[in-house]
């Protein structure tokens, strides 16, 4: 299972309701990782950790439930220029422990595994890599780190290109290649292809292992009715792929996916998708609640053929 943050995590939660959690390995994006106030933050791994262990805030859509913001208030009081990054008090605890561990030389995958175990996560959660990999967004206004573009600038700048710094020499985290080799199915969550899935595929050995794998690869489109459910995926598809039809989404994963799960409202694009060599699987893809996420996961299991 390849996943970004919030959108991916909601899908994975549905998957864990549909299959034994112990059978699932989630490979999470680390291209969003950043240092805030001296702390190492892994937004997508944290969204997965919180959502999959029922610690997430469903209404806000990100972060932890029952969150408070006292530390951030102090940061603002002190007029620190990093106060644009929202760090909740509960969330901070994880960043503190992770940063301490990384400074002591522990790999990200090990700290993540410890947090997952402590939170009671039964599925395995692996960062794509323990090495430094950072997504840079190229825009007419200049190059920005993913968080700076997404959060500080509210993803307003058009994206002209993406760079995955460090990817070329990044090695998969321990367990990633074995999981791919042993997988009966590789699922790609309805995450943003460009900023959540591409940074995972940018690790050369992961990309090679997926291509060498005999397992079917099934992706879920993050688009419903030509629009992203949330965030900039539709604008990025328009700009970088020339449209938001299923064939454009599939084009983000060339020669990689066998099937793409698309929404009923995008069914008109199914024939073009099939003509491009990717099996369409049409269903309702809006994860309006946990049951809908489970049904979407079941559709992915069916779509493997
Ligand atoms: P992030 O890392 O927190 O930004 O989250 P992801 O990249 O994993 O997920 C963001 C993507 O999920 C967006 O492009 C949304 O369009 C998509 N998404 C969110 N909810 C749904 C849903 O219910 N159904 C589908 N098909 N896509 C969704
Ligand atoms: Ca993300």
- Secondary-structure element order, as H and E? EHEEEHHHHEEEHEHEHHEEEHHEHEH
What is the share of helical residues? 40-55%
Low-confidence stretches: none
Helix-strand category: alpha/beta
Tell me the total number of β-strands: 14
- Radius of gyration, taken over Cα atoms and rounded to an integer in Å: 18 Å
Bound molecules: guanosine-5'-diphosphate, calcium ion
Number of H- or I-type helical stretches: 13
Ends distance? 17 Å
Strand content: 15-25%
Mean pLDDT over the full residue set: 97
Provide a compact summary of the structure.
By secondary structure, the protein is an alpha/beta fold. Helices cover 41% and strands 17% of the residues.
Could you please describe the fold and organization of this structure?
This protein is an alpha/beta fold and 305 residues long. Helix content is 41%, strand content 17%. The protein has 13 helices and 14 strands. The chain has helices at 6-18, 43-52, 70-77, 89-103, 108-119, 146-152, 176-182, 193-201, 204-212, 233-241, 246-250, 270-275, 290-303; strands at 2-3, 25-28, 34-36, 39-41, 124-127, 134-139, 142-145, 161-165, 186-188, 217-220, 223-224, 227-228, 259-263, 279-283. The strands form five sheets. A four-stranded parallel β-sheet has the order 9-10-13-14. Strands 1-2-5 form a three-stranded parallel β-sheet, sandwiched between helices. Strands 7-6-8 form a three-stranded antiparallel β-sheet, covered by helices on one side. The two termini are 17 Å apart. The mean pLDDT is 97. The site of calcium ion has 7 residues, from helix 2. Guanosine-5'-diphosphate binds at residues 3-8, 10, 44, 47, 189-192, 196, 220-222, 224, 228-231, 233, 285-287.
